[in-house]
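Example record

The entry below shows one chain as it appears in the dataset: sequence first, then structure tokens.
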Amino acid sequence: MQDKYRRKITSVTLIRYHFVWIPARRKKVLVGGVAERLKQLLTDKCIELDCSIVAMEIMPDHVHLLVDAPPNLAPDQIMFRLKGFTSFQLRSEYPYLKKIPSLWTRSYFCGTIGNASEETVKKYIENQNT
């Protein structure tokens, strides 16, 4: 269990966020190659942000992401960077996505997993496709 914690010189933290966000107009554009590319882009950007992905599920019209985050990065900054980066990349690689005014809506859900066990949240995310 101790390997879950982030250890720094002056702190020990365990910060997990469950994010959910949707494409503009709830369009079902996150399929096939777009979904696979989005997974890779999210993984790359999370590594850059020093976040680690605990669970991820990409549905045709929304994304679930459970991340372990550092204490110096606020949830709104994580979302701002993930959505901005993936929108730019996907719209440049898949021109038909430019027909939507913006890839993502400005809104998102963020919850910490204090009220539910991590396993419950992971199972919920992993069972989205079933």
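Notes for this example: The chain has a mean pLDDT of 92. The helical segments are 32-48, 75-93, 118-126.
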